Structures are given as C-alpha cells and as structure tokens.
C-alpha cells in the first residue's frame, strides 16, 4: 500500500529549526510534560540501574528524556538524524540552557536524582551526540533507553512508525528498561515556517507494537488542556522492559 504522505527519507530534516521548536514546545514546562517526566523519572529510579550505557533515540530538540537517564548512566548516546538538531544537541551537552532547569527540578523531587549535585557537568561527562537514524541502530547495544515523540513524527507512513518502535526495542539489551512517548492522532506539525509529517497513531496499535517486544508494560495517557498545538489528541507514555 502506498504511503499517504512523505516517507522519512523524503523529508528535509536538515532544515528543522531546533530553536523554534524549543521556544514553542519547551520554553515553559507544561503540566503534560511534567507528568510524563515524573512518571519516567520514577520508572528509571525503580529500575535499579547502575553504570548503564543508555540511549535517547531521535533526541531532536528535546533534552528532558536524556535527563531522566542521567544519574544511572556511564554513557548516554543522543541519537539524531537532522544535522541542525545535532549541532543544537552538542551545544546542550556541553552546558544546557537554563530553560531546562525546571525539568531537572522535577527530577530532583526523587532522591535518586537529588543525589546528583551538578547535572550539567554530569551530562558533559557522559553525553555523546551521534548522527544516526533510528532505522540504523545496532542491535542489543544499550542497557536502557528513551524515545520520545519520534515514531509518530518521522514520516506519514504508518509502517515506518511501527518499524521505528521495533528497531528501538531491538537496539536495547534483553531486560533493558525503556520509555517511549508518542502523540496520538497527530496529523502533522509546524516548526517555524516549515511543516513536517506525522502519523495519526491509535493507542491500541502503539501498545500492541511495544508489547510484541517487551514485558512489564505500563501505559499512561495525557490529554493536555489546552493542547500544545492543533492536530493531535493526546500524549501516550509507555514503559517496560525489552524481551530481547
């Protein structure tokens, strides 16, 4: 079946504007992001990770998934395809902007995070930005991982969204804890003056796709009021451990 819109390789990702994306999405900590951040924080704290090699896939212009991995990581690979986002990420790994401080303050409400006195220095020590696609990830490489708002927003092809989830899970070692977040019902989004494609995913299909490669799966759905933008229904966070 032909895709209803552009596939991943047809999108001009190098023209993505990370500054515009951050201003619109993360300049103020929203209640929906706070709840996803809190739940992801608690999940990784309960996973009893130590000295883990971690990955954040499709980091884009969002730092908070990587922050949830910070206390437990000997290394965090921030994997991103867009060259403009790669440049932005490298500036943040070296010393992230103050707007991310409220996100870290949510993290330090948990003792496992409060014990880390200098998150900026720690991220500079363990963070590494890698230019790569989710479709090119090596198998069984990382001990824990995050993938936020990627599968739903890398093309208009539903099969690619499903493939992205499967490749992410296979990139983790058996039993690795992970967190995946997607927009449900998304019909596309704008960044600055440019439009980018999305897939209108449904809760049941996302959960089924993740459960095929994972166990101990938990699901939380956030319906933001007001919404971040037009053209989506809710945000879905799924956590679990990989089957391997």
TrEMBL record:
N-terminal signal peptide: none
Protein name: Methyltransferase
UniProt xrefs under Gene3D superfamilies: Vaccinia Virus protein VP39 (3.40.50.150)
Organism phylogeny: Bacteria, Bacillati, Actinomycetota, Actinomycetes, Micromonosporales
SUPFAM superfamilies, A to Z: S-adenosyl-L-methionine-dependent methyltransferases
Organism this protein belongs to: Micromonospora maris
GO BP term (any one): methylation
Domain of life: Bacteria
Alphabetized InterPro entries for the sequence: NNMT_TEMT_trans, SAM-dependent_MTases_sf
Keywords: Methyltransferase, S-adenosyl-L-methionine, Transferase
Family annotation (PROSITE patterns): SAM_MT_NNMT_PNMT_TEMT (PS51681)
Gene Ontology MF annotations: methyltransferase activity
Pfam families linked: NNMT_PNMT_TEMT (PF01234)
